[in-house]
Amino acid sequence: MPSYTVDDALVCLGFGKFQILVLAYAGIGWVSEAMEMMLLSFVGPAVQSAWNLTPHQESFITSVVFLGMFVGAYSWGLLSDQYGRRKGFLVTATITAIAGFLSAFSPNYLFLMALRSLVGLGLGGGPVLLSWFLEFVPAPNRGTWMVVFQAFWTLGTIFEASLAWIVMPKLGWRWLLALSSLPTSFLLMFYKLTPESPRYLCLKGKTNDAITVLEKIARVNGTKLPSGILVSDHQIELQKVDNPSLEEEEEDTSLLSPRKDEIEQYPNPKGMLSKVGCLSSLMMLLSPELARSTLLLWVVFFGNAFSYYGLVLLTSELNNPHSKCIPHKSQRETSQDISYKDVFIASFAELPGLLLSAVAVDKIGRKLSMSTMFFMCCIFLLPLIFHLPQGLTTGLLFGARICITTTFTVMYIYAPEIYPTSVRTTGVGTASSMARIGGMLCPLVAVGLLHTCHQTVAVLLFEMVALLSGISVLFFPVETMGQELRDNVSNLKQTNKV
Question: Which residues form the Major facilitator superfamily (MFS) profile domain (predicted)?
Answer without folding.
Answer: 22-481
